[in-house]
Structure formats: C-alpha cells, structure tokens
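Hi Prof. W.,

I finally got the Helicase prediction working! I wasn't sure whether to trim anything, so I left the full sequence exactly as given:
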Amino acid sequence: MAKQQIAKGFYRRIFQRYLRPQSAQLLLLAVLLLLSSVVALAPAQVLRFYIDAAQQKSMLTILLVMAGLYLVSVVVAMGVNVWSTYLSERLSWSATNRLRADLLQHCLDLDMSFHNAHTPGELIERIDGDVSTLANFFSQLILRVISNAILLVCTLVLLALTDWRLGVVFTLFSLVTLFALGKVRNIAIPHWKVARQASATFFGFLEERLNGREDILSSSATGYVMHRFYQALQKSYKLEKKAGLLGSTLGATTVICFTMGYVLTFALGAYLYQQRVITLGGVYLLYQYMLLLERPVQQITSQLDELQMANAGLSRVRDLLETSSLLPESSSGSFAAGPLPITFEDVSFSYTPERKALQGLSLQVPAGKILAVMGRTGCGKSTLARLLLRLYDPTQGQIRFGTTPIASVPLHTLRDSVGLVTQDIQFFHASVRDNLTFFNRSIEDQTILEVLGQIGLLDWYHSLPQGLDTPLQSSQGLSAGEAQLLALCRVFLKDPQIVILDEASSRLDPITEQKIERAIDRLLTNRTGIIIAHRLATLERADQVLLLKDGQIEEQGLLASLRQDRDSRIAHLFATHQEEVLA
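And this is what came out:
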C-alpha cells in the first residue's frame, strides 16, 4: 500500500512538472479527443438512415443528402484526428525533452561512485531510451483512455435507445471484457522493467567496446568480444521476447472476447430483425456499434499495454531520480576573492577498503604559489586533484581553501573557483564558441577572441570557415597542441582562483610547446596553481614540490631548498635527470 502511494505521488509530480506548463494545449487536446469520440458515432447513424431510406425507395435527393452528410462526417473525423495527433506529438516531445534534461542534470550532480557503477552507454539508454517509452504516456495516453471510455458509454446508450435488451446485453458484454482485460493488464510490468535494464546493460557493453576498438583489434580479441556481444544481445532479446509475449495476453484476451461478441451481435441482429423489432438499417447499425465497441476496448487494451511499458519506464526513471549523491552539499557559503591558499589537513582517501589511495596527507600551498606534484603512476596524484574538486570526499581529514572547508560551500561555488586542465581533453559536437564557453551565453565573442589572441590561436581562428560558429567533432582535425591550447582557453574564460594542471606527457613541436608554456605562465599569474608534473623542466616554475609514493608523502618542501639539499630525492632527480619517476 505504501509503495502504491509513493507511485501515485510520483506520477502526480511528473504530471505537474511536465504537463502543467502546457495545460492550455492539454485542454485543447482533451476537447479534440472528446470531439473525435462524438464524431465517430455519426457515420453509423447516417448509414443506417441511408439503408432504411434506400430500402423504402425514398427520393434520390434524400439519398444524396445522406451521402453528403456521411462524407462530411468522415472528413471532420479525419481532420480532428490529424489535429489531435499533431498536438499530442508536440506535447510528448516537449514533456519528454524536459524530462531528459532533468535526468541529465541529476546524473551530472551525482557523485563519482554512481558514475563508476554505471557505464555511459547504460546512462544514455536510461536517460533517452526509458524516457522514449513515455512519449505516448505524456501526450495522450490518459486522455485517450478517458475519451474511449466516453465513446464506449455513448455507444451503449445509443444501443439501449435502439432496444433496451441490446443495451443490457452489450453493457454486460463490455463489463465482462474489461474485467478480463483488467485481470491480465499488469502481468508484464515487472518483465518489461527487467527487459529495460537488460537493454541498458547491452548499450553500456556496446559503448565500452566501441571506445576500446583499437585495443581490441591490437589484442586480436575480436572473436571474444563478438561472442560477448551475442551473449548480451541474446539475453536482451530473450527478456524482451518474454515481456512481449506476456504483454500480448492482453491482445489475445481481446480477440477471444470480441469473437464471442460478434457471434452475439449477429445472433441478436437476426433474432430482432425476424421479430421486426429493428430494420435492416438497424441490423447494420448493430454491427457498426459492435465495431465501435471494439475500437475503444481494443484501444484501451493497447493503451493499457503501452501503460505497462510506461510504468516500467517510469519506475526506472523514479529509481534514477531518487538516487541521491553521497556528497553532502551546503546551500550557502563562499570563498574570499583573489588567489586562495590550499590546506590539506591529515587527508586520507581510499577507493576500496583494501588499499588507501592517499594516507595522512598534510600540506599547505600559499595563495598565488605553485605546487608541483610528482610520483609514479598510482601514487595518488590524480586522486589529489579529484579531492580538490570534490568529486570524492576524504575518508579522513579536511581540505580548506583559505579558512573555508571546501565541503561547507555549494558544489557549483567550489567548482567555479577551480579550473582543471586534464590530459584527456574532450570536445562536444558543437560550435567552437560552445566548446570554449561550455554553452555559457553570457561570455561575449570579443572576450573569446581576446583570449585566443593571448594564447596564440588567432591564426587558427582565422582558418576556421565559420569562425566561432564552426562545429567541432570531438578532437578530429585538431593537433595535440591545438587541443591543449583550447583546453587552456576554457580555463582562461572561466577565470578561476585555483588552477589544476595535469601536464601533457606527449611530446610537441617546439613552436607549439612554446605557445603552451607562455599560455600556462599567463594562466598561473595571480592564481594558486597545482601542476601534476611529468617532466623535470616543469618543476622549474613551481614554488613547492610534493613527491608522492604509494599515497604517502615521500618528500615535500620549497623547490629551492630541496635542490640545495644533497640528501633530497628532488636534488638527486635533477642531478641524474631521471624523469621516469614522473611518469
């Protein structure tokens, strides 16, 4: 009972959020659907009178008028259906796109433990695929159920007006049919939910393998991957087949019920005609009304079938929306202006209980100074950067910017204050402008051009066929150096107080490398900087150095002091030029 109350409350919230803003269009659609139900009754009545008039050899003029009325009623019905279909499509696309946007924003706000547990392909299927099953639900499902119910009632009333016995018999028939359908309508819902999850898992598998196609080909693992592909596809197919078969019990029940209904119709029609209770036109009308009874009941059946899929989709949407971030977020708080000092106070962190990525880390970076972090792969360099952005929270200790703990300010405030440049630079399928500003329309084109000039990309900009409107597709068509410069441009436009730079390990041509060095110098001016270093030359611009080993501090201090200390590990690296420790 409590679960049903939660579901009803969720459905109510969904309708209020995504359909209430379109209440005027929804009302118009309701009127059109009701009108289509009423108009559907007219052609049968016109044909009844036409048949009776023809049988009685009425005047040709009367027959022509009735034929004209029939054509008008059919055209009006078609026009109403076209208009209602257009309006329902607009409603469904508008509502589902808003829901997709909300789901995407919600996923972006979740912590990394959620994203580590779900592949991008799976999330795409949940954000887009599950929502696609709700298109009809949002636009017209409930309204069509109501309008078909009204059509059903009107048809039964007209049958009763023709002869009360017809009204009683077909009312009982309709109640028995709807009762039978109600018994089987929910049978497929849990199976559709499992099938949707299998589909999401399959797309996650597909996305991962497509991204790793070069490694798969180079490792001669194509056969194994294809075997796994067929296994995942077969599992998804079997589950969807089972859900579809169980869902088809609705259709099968409908066919059985209406086969009996048509037998009843012809038997009653023949009997009443022989008793001279109804005319030949009345027999035809009885048959047409049986068709009209079949239409709403079949559509209600079909819509209940769609409702099973929609319920499964809504259930998964609800599960996703009710997933909360493990990172507690403050609703207020801010940092002081200008470059910020950074303090790590006995910070420890582990991705798994078995092994700590960082252990007992304590250090201070004064405002406006630069810390170079170095160490072998897996020593905790990247983890340190993730903690500064609060992609994770420390399992022990505290991080402060100035005197303010970073956990005490809103996440958007924290991340607005920190600029991150990674080695793995990603570009959206969007314009150069949107890629540089991250779709922030408040940044003017002139500001973008000034930054491009500062980092030496004006010549590249002038080569673009559409200027800032030129579309970028991932990093295709960009050299490694251009991609890094554009990533630096993003941080310039963001204007953060702290910059985290994961230095590129790839070698560049001397001219591009000089451009990048000058851009980094400008970027770090009057900002606190943390550089994850991969080359000894990078240490030259640092004020402090932190050497990590297995998540612990092996050595730290001022660069100048460490270079003069003969027992220092840093001094030994400079003396021997052993850059492999920075890899």
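The radius of gyration is 35 Å. Does that look reasonable to you?

Thanks,
D.
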